[in-house]
Design a protein that fits this description.
Elements: H1 17-22, H2 26-42, H3 49-78, H4 96-118, H5 120-144, H6 148-152, H7 154-157, H8 159-168, H9 173-196, H10 198-204, H11 209-212, H12 214-235, H13 244-266, H14 269-274, H15 278-306
Length: about 300
């Protein structure tokens, strides 16, 4: 078991509301909410606004529960990384036991309430997502294999599928392709981060690809996965949920993303280090916009379809 299961009362300070909120990883939660909403809005079945609001709320709570469980388990390595050292548990603001209690309580509440609000299929998908992130990724993959972020990326890819299931009660090709879009996007997104945060992962003993195989191999993998990502993203154009907005966004963003991946692939390590990995940081920021714009375009096309602008 991770050392995160131990309390550190000597260093713990009085927690404030903001500390407990930070425990839920609000940035990750916002991405989950956004992509789940896209899946809900894009579905061909209308959902009552109150049901939709409740569903998105409980999906957000489930995402927050996953974040709390992850922080409970990873507190030992979070203390060793600059990027995560100020999180509530390693900073001593919230105890490990409290983080575990919050995570488990919110997990049960989110799944049960989503079941009552929207049915068994979305609730089962949410339960599996929480389990996958907390157990399969955090407890197993993250510390055992450089493919951690590849396989573990599935946890972040389920939300649009859950949103779709809220509306339709099931899963379809469109939902699977939205899942695949996030799944294929995750490795280049996180590997770009690992290129300029490699020291953190090395100090913490996390077998990120940059640690186990080096930055050169990581650059090769970023290019390869970006090449795979482009047709996955464009495949949504073969479904009814992608229209003119998605066409424009996907073509432009995939061209920019491929160009960025090629630039990273061509980079010399000495040059990259000398400019503090400027290109890699830029690619990482671009990756955030990439996902936001794709799912934003899906929602725009759903609105255009609803207004009768296109079939």
């Amino acid at each position: 078991m991770s050392d995160a299961s131990l309390n550190h009362p000597a260093t713990q300070t009085d927690a404030r509301f903001g500390d407990y909120f930070a425990l839920l990883k609000p940035r990750v939660m916002s991405l989950v909410v956004f992509t789940a909403l896209a899946g809900l809005v894009a579905a061909p079945v209308a959902v009552h606004p109150m049901v939709g609001f409740a569903a998105i709320l409980f999906i957000a709570v489930g995402a927050g529960a996953s974040g709390a469980l992850n922080m409970w388990w990873d507190a030992d390595i979070d203390r060793l990384m600059r990027r995560t050292a100020r999180r509530p548990v390693p900073a001593g603001k919230v105890s490990a036991d409290e983080a575990l209690s919050v995570g488990l309580t919110l997990s049960v509440m989110a799944v049960v309430m989503l079941w009552l609000a929207a049915g068994v299929v979305p609730a089962a998908l949410l339960a599996f997502t929480i389990f996958f992130y907390a157990v399969v990724y955090s407890m197993w993959l993250k510390r055992s294999t450089p493919q951690n972020i590849v396989i573990g990326g599935a946890a972040g890819a389920f939300p649009p599928m859950i949103g779709w299931a809220v509306a339709t009660g099931g899963i379809s090709v469109e939902a699977v392709l939205m899942f695949a879009l996030i799944f294929a996007w995750t490795p280049p997104h996180f590997w770009a981060l690992a290129l300029f945060m490699n020291d953190d992962y090395q100090n913490a003993g996390v077998p990120m690809l940059t640690v186990t195989h080096g930055r050169r191999v990581t650059r090769n993998h970023i290019l390869a996965y970006t090449i795979i990502l482009a047709p996955v993203a464009l495949a949504l154009l073969l479904t009814p949920i992608a229209g003119p907005a998605y066409l424009v966004v996907s073509v432009v963003m995939n061209a920019l993303f491929l160009n960025g991946a090629v630039a990273i692939w061509r980079r010399d390590e000495a040059v990259a280090a000398s400019d503090n990995y400027k290109v890699e940081r830029s690619f990482f920021r671009l990756s955030l916009g990439y996902l936001f714009l794709h799912f934003g375009a899906i929602m725009i096309d759903a609105g255009l379809r609803g207004w009768g602008v296109w079939p």
